[in-house]
Every structure is written in structure tokens, then in C-alpha cells.
Amino acid sequence: MKHIHLFSLAVAALLAASCSDISYEDRLVEEEVGPIVPTTGESRTVLIEDFTGQNCPNCPTATTVVENLEHFYSGHVVAVGIHSGMLGMGTPLFTKEGQEYFLKLGNENLPQPAVRVNRIGEPLCGGPEVQNRLPELVHTYAAQTTPVKISDFTGTVSESDANTYDVNFNISTTQSLDALVQVWVTENDFISWQKMPDGSRNREFRHNNIFRTTLTPIDGDAVSLTEGTAAACHYSLAINNAWTAANMYVVVIVSSKDGEMLQVKRFPLVNA
Amino acid sequence: MRKTLRFAALGLLSVVCCQQLTAQVSVTGSVQSDMMVAPLQDERIGTSEYDNKYFLTNTYVDLMLQSKSVDAGGRFELTQWPMPGFATSPNEDFKGWGVPNLWVKGRLKRVELTMGSFYEQFGSGFILRTYEERTLGVDNSLTGGRAVITPVEGLQIKALSGVQRNYWEHNGSIVSGADVEMSLDQWIKPMKKKGMHLLVGGSWVNKWENYKDKLYSKDPAYSLNVPEFVNAFDARVNFRKGGFNILGEYAQKSQDPNSLNGNIYRTGRAAMLSATYSKKGLSVLLQTKRSDNMAFRSKRNETHSTTSFINHQPAFCLDHTYALAALYPYSTMAEGENNGEWAYQGSLGYNFKKKTAMGGKYGTKLKLNYSLVKPIDYNWHGVDAEGNVNDLLATTDGYGSAFWKWGHDTYYQDLDIQLEKKLSKRWDIHAMYMYQDFNRIIQKHEGHIRSHVFIFEPKWKINNKLTLRGEAQYLYTDHESGDWGFGLLELSVAPYLMFTVSDQIGRPEKTDSYGDVTHYYNFSVTGSHKGHRLQVGFGRTRAGVNCTGGVCRYIPASKGLTINYNYNF
């Protein structure tokens, strides 16, 4: 009798086990991706700041997710890969300005990759957290509107120096406010090494959205915006020999003085 | 956690009161407090900010009441300002204080019932092992109920259910399980007569998690449909006769996509075969294990390296206690792109008898150990040679893996030879040589560190009160990390005091380079009396990894005055 009870328990357990598996065809659930374009007002582009590093083996996982989201939300997501922190230090893509900005997060030992969306909340840390939480965050923030518009961008070679570009753009707003404008420069399609999740080093890794330099102080320039009036901004960019101008972009970020990210836009440096 | 603790406390109080009235109750316990006073910054060794600039401590107070049929106990913990490395921002969940462990256990004839916090292991721990390891900050106890029944001699049945502790909270999932072990020799008389023991066991563990967040595939346009239940099974056979013992064990886990394994649905498997033989003066161990996607956690999106584990995958390597032998410790490979391993271990212990050529006047002990850990074969599904996804659904399988095949490279290898010899009434020596091949992928770096470690430890009993022990260690390697040296002198003044001075010399590891040759000095005085032990020390601690049983924690560099107090009563 006791043996029957034990056997029944075993069978029940096996049945419970067989019921729990998900069949192959049912594993994937299609999600709603892509921006929800507002019917009124200016759509707020999402800013993804990826604090990454060439020595960071989990960073390629995060980078793949970020670049996929850029593709799905084309024009509504701007990503910047800031090579910084313990795993970016001492590598070819590391910059002092990027490190200065990374340290403002308040933790020099922050695990990487560390990804922050629209400068809200704590960064997502680690490949798995980025993979599992970033898509929903981006989808949420991509539906928001903003009073700020960045437009009329031009990037032209300076008349005095072929390696210098004059960068111009306008900022307009539907409500007057005091803001900070940051102007960053990024580069795509740069081949360099990268540590991979299996510990190996991929020497032909294609790096995108690399933070190269800033044309403003790292915290930005103060700008006073008046409703209905466009503020014209002018900057000058000296191209480094290691950079390829045709692959470079200017990222303009406008924030309130409280730190709220109001709008971000990315423009190719070399106008088509 | 609070309701459980209140309930258990009420139960405990009732029990104690009843027992006080009816039977004798013995009280035992312990106090363990590791403290650091006014920790110092030291740029040379790379210290970072401490949680508190005045005082850090990990303190534990255990209390147990025992009587004939009822036991009860609890533990107070103070880790609000923890020792370095236990709560590194942003993962500060270790910080806190309170009574996270409270339990009551009753015994009646053939039944034992536990309510509250408990620890349990099924078989070798492949599907369930909850334990406490303070040096790692690990306490994955379950809080709930457990029953152990021995209906007849030779048959034991366990059943349990509870929620798992995760620092100062409990994970939202429910872990349940059952285990049956039968000693067949109790029922088969000829076996018992011939001194044979045959144990057959089977276990089942289930995790139920109502996971509300989403897991995503490699494509953010698709999330994953995750199973609510994860089931794991274990079967084992253990035969023993005289000095010979053989254990075979197999475990399997159903679909369990989680943050640690890259959100894959692959079935987890582990298999182990272990044989030992021992007789007076001789011991032999041979064992092998293959594990594949067997990390089992009670929280699907857990990312802390040491928390929420339901099971344990042992490392088939010695846990070295000598400083330089433990410089590059092995941790079981069970995540991401390194989700399994083949492990082999062989050990031989032999006593050369006294008054023989090798044994000398007092005898000589020889120990040999060899450990080898290789990756399993990985054939990743749904991606091309460069790792680009070409079939998203196939990537949810993870990988295929030919059972007998090794993957590329070697994770870890070491060969140890130890000699222990009494030279005279007053002199003992212990000598060790170790060759180690450590693949830095274990710590997510590149390359191997291959080293030779030489250790010599003499002990001189000066007189009935004084004993002087020394250690001289040297690690030689071609790797850019460079050689390391270690020296120690320890004077014991029986029965109460011990004075120790040591220095470890080498190049500290920076992010991907090595600093200048640095001294990691340490001075300490230890006093013990009756159940009390107090150690006060000052010095530098090297940044490194502390491992026990294949589970590791990173410890940052630190410098300062340390006080360790233990009391057992």
C-alpha cells in the first residue's frame, strides 16, 4: 500500500513536469515595437546612454539590443556608446570627457554595461538586465512628447581649415524655459577589438555610436529659450585624424536645468 | 518575512515555556563578529570607498534550545555596515540587521517536523542544496516547512516547501521538493551479512514563479513565453563495502530560461560518477562529473553572482588554504557562454610506515591530487560563425552539445603533491608543490596563467608552551602578472596566545594591467580562553576572489585594523 502511494506521488510529479514545458512554436511572443507617433505635439526622441568598454565581455550583448532598438524605432531613438569606467579605461575608444561624464553617475565601480534611458533612474547593469528591461523602457518613453524642437542642422567644412566643420542648428520651444544644451560627436562603423561574452577578443568588431568628443562643457551650455523664437546655435568641430568624417554624427541634447532630458536629435555631420 | 518570523517566534516561545515546565532544555549558541575599525585608503593597493569610514562589521549570533523532542533556534545578524566586498554598489542588498533565521523542530517517533528557516540537501546537491557560507555572504535557506519521515528502518522520506531567503527579503517563488532514500541492505539480508551497503535515492524539486516581468529574446521585437513551473529530478545509487565506495548520480532540470543562462530553453543535465577506496594508510579517489545548464535559481531575473541558488554544482578541485595556492581559485562554470563543464579529479593518500626507508622514524604522509576541468561542446543554434542571428526561434534552444565531446581549451587544471613528515619530537614539516593552469575566462578575462607553486611549512615545538610555525611560499609564472612570494611566522604561546606576522609580495591586478610590486603585510595577535577567541590584526588585504566549493565572491582591496571575535557556548 505504501509503495502505491509513493508510486502515485512519482507519477504526479512527472505529470507536473511534462505540463510545465513550453512547446517550441509557442516560445516567442511578438511585441509591439516602433514609435507611437503623437497626433499633437513634438515627439520626444529617446536617449540611450550606453556606458560601455572594449574590455567588457557582456557589453556586446547590450550593444546588440541597443542597435536593434535603434533600428525598430528609426529616428526616434538616439544611442551614444560612452567608453568609460573600469572596463573602458586604457582602451583606444576611451575618452577623458566620457569618463568625466561616467563619474557623474556617482559610482566609479559601476558594473558594465550600464545603460541609462532618458537619464531617468538608475542605469540598467549587465547584459541580461539590458536585454530584458531595455525594450519596454524604450517603448514607454518613445510615446512621450516634448515642448522642444531641434532643427535646421547644417554641418559644413570651414573655409579656413578643411579639417574643421562649422556646426549650426536651431532650438525652438512651445514654452519659455532655461535649458542646457550638450553637443556631442559620435562615430559609426569603426573597426577595433572588443572582448566577447565567451572571453575571446574579436579584433574586427564593428563599433557604432562611439562617443568621440563634446563641443560644449560636459554638462552643457546654458541657453535661454523663448516661446515662439528659435535660438540659433553655432559650434566648431576639429576632426581627429583617426576619425572618418563621413561616419560621424552630431548629437544635440537639450535638458532642463533640473536634469530632465527634453529632446535629443542626431544629425550626420556631413550633410547629404 | 516578518509574518513568518512572528509566527515562528510565537511557536518558539510556546515551546520553550512548555519545555521549561516539563523537561530539561539545553542552550547552546555562538557569536561571530568580524570587524574593521577606521578602514584606511591606500592608493597603492587600490582601495575604494568603504560603506562607513569608522566601523564595518559582519556579526552573527546563533542561539539553539534543545530538549528531548523539541528544538528551536534563531540567528541575529548585523550587516548594516558590512565588511568590504559584501555590498558593492549598486548591489547593496546584503546590508541590514535583524533576525532572518528562526525555526522550531519537533520529533515524534519516526517523524521530524521543522517550521521556519531550514537548510537541506538532496543527494550531492545537484537539484537542492541550501546552506550558509559566511565568508561568501551566502545564505539561501528556505522558510516554510519540512518533514522527515523514517517509516521503517532503511527508508527515509523528506518533503518540504518554502520561500527562499534573498538577503533581507524572500524571493516570490515557491520551492517544493521530495526525497526518498532506501538502504536496500536493510532489507536484503545476504547483503547485510556480507557487509555491503546499497543506497538508492530519488529526488524531485519544483519551483513555481509567477513571473510578471518580461524576458526578451535576442530580438527586442519578441519577448519569451516562460514556464511557470520548473522541475528538477535526481536519481542516485551508492554502493559501499569495506573501504570501497562508489556513487553514481544523474540530475535533470526542465526548461528554465533565465538571466544567467541567456534566456534559453535547453534542458539542464548533470551526471557524476565517484569511486573511493580507503584502508589504513591508503586512500584513493577517482571522480568525474558533467554538468550542462544546471544552474537553478528561485528568481528568474537574478543577476547577483551568489544569490537565489536552489542547487549547488560542486567544483572538482581542492579548496586550497595556502595563500598562493589559492591565488587563482576555480569557480564552477555555469552561465552564459560557459554554461557547463566536464570535471575530473583523482587523489591518492599514502602513509609510509615508520621505520621504513620512506617513512623514517615517525612515518611520512604523501598526498597527490590532480584536477582537470574542460568545457563541454557547444554548437550554438540560430547564429552564424560571427554570432549574428539567422534563426531567432532556434536561438531559444541555446546550443546542442555532444555528450562525450570536450569544447575548446581548458578551464582549469592542477596537480598537487604534498608531503607531511615528523622529523623529530620537536620538528614537523609540510611541503607542497602545485602546478596550476588557470584560464582567465573564469574571471571574464583572456589568456591562461600557468604557474608553479612551492610551499614549505616547518613547525618547531620549542618547548611545552612555545611552538613556532613558518610558511615560505613562492609562485613562479611566465604570465605578465609576475611571480608572487609569501612568508609567515606564527608563534603560539600555549594555551592562550598566538602572534602572527606575514607578508605577501607581488603585482596587484588593475583593470587589464598590473601595478608595481607591492607588499601586503599583516600582523595579528590571537587569544583564546574557554569558548572565546579574539584576534586583532592590522594590515593590507589584496583584492581578489574568495571561493568555497566552486562559489566565489570578489573581495576588494582594504587596509586597516581588523578584529575577529568568536564565542561558542
Description of the structure:
The complex is a heterodimer of chains A (272) and B (569). In chain A, helix 2 runs parallel beside helix 4. In chain A, the strands form 5 sheets. In chain A, strands 10, 13, 14, 16 and 17 form a 5-stranded antiparallel sheet that branches. The termini of chain A are far apart. Chain A is built from 4 helices and 17 strands. Chain A has helices spanning 2-20, 59-72, 96-103, 127-141; strands spanning 28-30, 42-43, 46-52, 77-83, 114-117, 124-125, 145-146, 148-157, 164-173, 177-187, 190-195, 201-207, 210-214, 221-225, 231-238, 248-256, 261-268. Chain A is an alpha+beta fold and 272 residues long. Chain B is mainly beta. In chain B, 5% of the residues lie in helices and 52% in strands. In chain B, strand 4 (97-108) and strand 5 (111-118) form a beta hairpin. Chain B starts with a helix and ends with a strand. Strand 1 (28-30) of chain A pairs antiparallel with strand 13 of chain B.
Report a brief summary of the structure.
With 272 residues, chain A is α+β, with helices and mostly antiparallel strands.
Key terms for this structure?
heterodimer; A: 272 residues; alpha+beta; five-stranded antiparallel beta sheet; four-stranded mixed beta sheet; 4 helices; 39% strand; B: 569 residues; mainly beta; 24-stranded antiparallel barrel; two-stranded antiparallel ribbon; 3 helices; 32 strands; 5% helix; 52% strand; globular
Unreliable spans of chain A? none
Described by the principal axes of the CA atoms, the overall outline of chain B is globular
Q: How helical, in percent, are the residues of chain B?
A: under 10%
Tertiary shape of chain A: globular
Return the structural class of chain B.
mainly beta
Specify the number of helices of chain B. 3
Oligomer: heterodimer
In round numbers, the mean pLDDT of chain A is 89
- Give me the count of strands of chain A: 17
Give the percentage of residues in beta strands of chain A.
35-45%
Bin the helical content of chain A.
10-25%
